[in-house]
């Protein structure tokens, strides 16, 4: 749980910065950063919730809902930070990252051992 809280705090901290110093390697690279960050957040969430929720399908669904709502709250938070703005496309990248990570997790879990 501490990793989930720590990573959520890191996302909040980075979102509170006026601008992040990252050289632009390609257009819309921030969407890739959102995708990766929320993929990691989803895996940390599922790793935490699997100890508290049963059945397994509920864990995956709740992990996605948590990530989607956290992403939405993060975008709302950015609307109050000077030099930042809320973006529906960023939120879609957040949700996509969570969905991709959770889909990969489920696929790995279903493999025969």
Furnish the topology, listing elements before pairings.
Blueprint: H1 2-15, H2 29-49, H3 56-78, H4 88-110
Helix pairs in contact: 1-2, 1-3, 2-3, 2-4, 3-4
Strand count: 0
Count of spatially separate domains: 1
Order of helices and strands: HHHH
* Morphology: globular
* H/I helix tally: 4
Give the fraction of residues assigned to helices.
Answer: over 70%
Mean pLDDT: 93
Features:
113 residues; mainly alpha; 4 helices
General description of the model:
With 113 residues, the protein is mostly helical. It has one domain. It has helices at residues 2-15, 29-49, 56-78, 88-110. The model has no long low-confidence stretch (mean pLDDT 93).
Quick structural gist:
The protein is mainly alpha-helical. It contains 4 helices and no strands. The protein has one domain (29-110).
